[in-house]
Write a structure and sequence with these properties.
Cytochrome p450; Cyt_P450_sf; monooxygenase activity; four-stranded mixed β-sheet; two-stranded antiparallel sheet; alpha+beta; 50% helix; 17 helices; monooxygenase
Length: 439
Amino acid sequence: MYLEVLGRPMIILDKHQAAVDLLEKRSANYSDRPKFIFYELLGWKPALTFLQYGKQFAKHRQIHQSYLGRHKVDDFKPMQALEARTLARNFIESAPENYEKLMSRFATGIITQIVAGHRITSPDDPYLRMSDMILETLSKTGPPGNSPLDFFPVLQHFPSWFPGAKHVGVVEAWKSSTQEIYDYPVRTVRQQKEAGEAAPSFILSYLEKMEEGDDEADLKGAAATMFAAGEMTTWSTLSVFLLAMILHPEWQMKAQREIDSVVGDQRLPEFDDRNNLPLVECIMQETFRWNPVNPLGVPHRAMEDDIYRGMLIPKGSLVFPSIKGMSLDETVYSDPTTFYPERFLPRPAGKGEPHFDNIVFGFGRRICTGEYVASNSLWIVITSILATCTISKAVDEKGNIIVPENIMSDGLASHPTDTRCAISPRSARSKALIMEAIG
């Protein structure tokens, strides 16, 4: 789809093959980003997600891949399993109004240990406060490149009460907090390193390789990107999973039967069980597809004129990989609005439809560098919750069953607007296993 908005050409790719053809096979022309004025003013210009294509982008991507690549992910699995089991225990022990914060704590807890070697043990942890700030701003400010500031940069010089300039007020309120996300983790780990108390982490490994006089700007940008992206996407996707289980309890029960048949009731699921739990894998894939948490994707920018299938794509065009559009492609996914995990199983058990993780994590040189970490985090937490918890619809004070609507928020990380539910232990045995695992 081609359109122009205020003279700016935009291409919406809602077919997976088109995204592969342009963003992967012609990645040399489509790996750039436009300038995101609003996010730059907020302080996110050094983040890998928003960096324009060039030497700094290549350096940041190499930094990320050196610590988050496939060769490193096994190192994080014990910690991810512990955090997943901690969330299951917290769900069982906490009131429903706390579920959203508990999911955020899970996501933050994993990425904080990877980035800074810090385990969250208190609700007052400074990393949780930073996480709240990220969710408050980045998940509620609209898709990148679509704010009035991006179309009319001159608005940055107007007061926030001026029509169309409300984002200026957001910048004024949150810019200093964004800077703290860049400064605090590196400053803290550096102090711990000097005291001989630093735990293994991405920041520590980078500091140990730095030479005297090296600039910390690249380290701060890489660490802040890992923290923000890892927290937002994991929390948002986990919220979608929770909504799916509330609205479709039949799939919860099917997955629990599969887990019981493979794992039994004498232990908790482990990563080694993954290949033997195909339906659980399908539930995660369908969670990605059913409500993508980055529905329009982050726009790429055409660096030169190009011709695709007879259509001119002008230099400077914004190219959006519409993840939501691809999820609804009826030529690929039958009955696409329905939550149907078995669609991914090979025929005849399923429909043999393609997994969605090759779409949801992006394309080409802009593919998410943390995709393997994110996949493992989500798989182990989904499996741990299904193995030990029962997710049910909530009941209001009058005894009426609450059925949440399937409505997603706007923002860089879209998430369900309502996940009210009740979570209880599946059995006394499953509760005991969780308590024993946490210690």
